[in-house]
Amino acid sequence: MADYEVPKLTGEGYCEIPAVREGVMESKGPFIAKPDFQKALHFPNDFDAAGSLVPNWKERALDKMADLKGRYRSLQVFLDICVKCGACTDKCHYFIGTSDAKNMPVARQDLLRKVYRRYFTFAGKYFPKLVGATDLTEEVLADWYNYYHQCSQCRRCSVFCPYGIDTAEISMAAREILDHVGYGQKYCNEIIGKVFKIGNNLGLPGPALFDTVEGLEEDVEMDTGIKVRFPLDEDGAEVLLVTPSADFFAEPHIDGLIGYAKVFHETGVTWTMSTIASEAGNFGMFIGSYETMRRVSLRVREAAIKHKVKRIVFGECGHAWRVAYSFLNTLAGPFDFLDQRYPVPQHILEFTWSQIQAGNLQIDKTENDDKVLTFHDSCNVARGSRMGDYPGGQFDIPRHVIRAVCNNFVDMPADTIHDATFCCGGGGGLLTDDLMEIRVKGIQPRAEALKHVTTHNGVTHMAAICAICKSQFTKVLPYYGFTMDQIVSVHQLVSNALVLQRQVSVQARPDDEDGDED
Amino acid sequence: MTFVSILYGLLFWAATLILIGGVAMKIRQYWNTPAPLKIPTTPAPVTQGGVVWRMFREVVFFQSLFRSNKTLWLFAFLFHISLWLVLIRHTRYFMEMGAVLTFLQPFGKYAGFTMVLGLAGLWARRFLVDRVRYISAPSDHLMLALLIAIGGSGLLMTFVTHTDVTQVKAFFGGLLTFGFFGDAGGLPADPIVLVHLLLVALLMIIFPISKLMHAPGIFFSPTRNQVDNPREKRHVSGWALELERQGKNYLDELKK
Fold first, then answer.
1. A383 and B62: CB-CB below 8 Å?
2. Type and span of the H or E element at A347
3. What is the ipTM of this complex?
């Protein structure tokens, strides 16, 4: 299946910490973005072809570094205060899976820190060898490009660092510098280009979306005999649902979308999706660009205003939820035109859980009796955001919902869940086929924990609440002997168990109002 | 007053100036650098009081480090707590002994041993653990060597060859009041005292330009010091607000 070794699982629930090896994962990194795409993102594009650098790249890289460290306290402080204690060295799933020395969080940070020291600190200017400072060369840039694209920005290292140093902040800064010298990543930057041009990551145009939701309405009606609406671009609905575009067609994502629709249908809350904001994921975060992230976020604001909604709800998507929960108010706020009785934005799980608690949903848990579930805490939900109104709500609410709709639930080992959760291996802009090797190796710790509960507790399925996790798992877990259908959406489980009482959605079809044409 | 006294007097004045000035400059830099986004590592406190409590647990008990690696935590905690006790004991060279200070003297005296022990453990890791060996620069080793040498020379004076403590106190008393460097003959010319003090001055000088900045730096770490309330309270940095005000997308489009 692959020309590299797939790690073996023991089923013991933990991975041995490998001895460090140098250069195991040395490569050219993912495909590089062409000048056209750099231009669309307002990055410098005065370089010849993908893979070449802009003129005076060194000066421009250092200027960008100075600019970023002046604008981001995290970067400046994190570059200065690491004591190289090594607490993080065994915490990265990519290090565990590959044993490459440069995949230890501190070593990954040092790729940038060494250059920072050389040009911006007294010790590095005058005693470079002593403090491990190096000149910025093309080789260093190539190393940045390779190894900063072996970081999924999952922030697991930041949990264990005594100073809270977050490698994600460093790898975002590195990627932003690379974008400014001609080494942009094709996968992320082309996707962001599609968002700006078409409205979502997958480049699904409006007509395709209408076609999809119409098909879904037919499917659900065939399945249940009930007309569940999937409203798109409808003004005056109460809720704007922003969900990852993968929910419109990928498996098991789409089953999640069906779940959201059924919950809205059953609760009688009117809702709509929007072709302008037909994507929740914000890849601006992956490339560390505040400006890009803001531009992507402003679409959500625009859609909310255009469709005159009262609330914004986000679908199951990890990075999307981090940007939504932590940054949306910052980037695209203030949202004072929305109904202030609800948090802005809300997670679909917060919505569903409150409806379950209020007794508005009739549930038949036995519908999920063919499964024993475990739950994968997605990194950006677990370590970068919250649900509910108390710290740690993001761990409880998904589990509450799963337990409310399923009889069999088992957690994976404690050091692999909650804020110590292991990444799926595909986050942060790594969900691209040109990075298959790192994705396969990086999933090892998660696969090991999953293997443990499948072996010892009879777990059959793992639920996830992130589009990237779901895509990565279905593609990569088969390398470890799991099957694609063992990965499910949480709202897929809700969808299975929900007993529909209403015959028709509260929301009228717009064409019903217009009068039937046929 | 001797030549050595003048030299050491000037050295300590300079070292103090560099330490205080350097750290102040760094803190000013951290303070003035905006934190444009809320990035606390969750589960994070939702109130300011909660943040203070979280920071207290981190700074005093090294909570995250404890979760991460128990051996490392043990050596690090041993070193830092001992260092505090030793530092408290040293205040007697600068001020009058109160009841509390008198009570703490013996703790500070024996903490010298645990301090060196903790440092030795930390240094051993740099050789024995391949991951830590890989990430260590020469300066990381030197820093530990320096601290061990300071601790060792201090222990020698406490337990092996005593120096004239009263005279040392008079010397530093003189420095503090910007008087002469000790009226009664200045600094005792014991080689161990001189080595000890030289290394301490060196440590003070490199403090602001080295990783020792982790001590004040941790208070500025956004992943630890931010309140997790982005939905309730809008958080916008100055430069981001300017983008918004001028209706621009990119910084280079801003009217300056």
1. no
2. strand A346-347
3. 0.96
What are B3's two structure tokens?
């030549």
Q: Does A134 touch chain B (CB under 8 A)?
A: no
- The answer to whether residue B242 scores a pLDDT higher than 60 is yes
Cβ of A291 and B250 within 8 Å? yes
- The b-or-e profile of A406-420 (16+ CB within 10 A means b, else e) is bebbebbeeebbbbb
User: Buried b vs exposed e over B188-217: b needs ≥16 C-beta within 10 Å?
Assistant: bebebbbbbbbbbbebbbbbbbbbbbbebb
DSSP A367: G
Which of B58, B68, B241 to mutate against chain A (most A CBs within 10 Å)?
A: B68
CA distance B225 to chain A (A): 9
* Rg of chain B (C-alpha set): 23
A465 with A352: CB under 8 angstroms? no
Distance CA A87, CA A17 (A): 13
Whether residues B230 and A329 touch (CB distance < 8 A) is answered with yes
d(CA A515, CA A130): 80
- Distance between CA B209 and CA A242 in Å, rounded? 47
Q: Do A384 and B42 touch (CB under 8 A)?
A: yes
Residue A85 forms contact with B (CB below 8 Å): yes
Mean pLDDT throughout A167-182? Answer: 98
Is pTM, for the whole model, over 0.90? yes
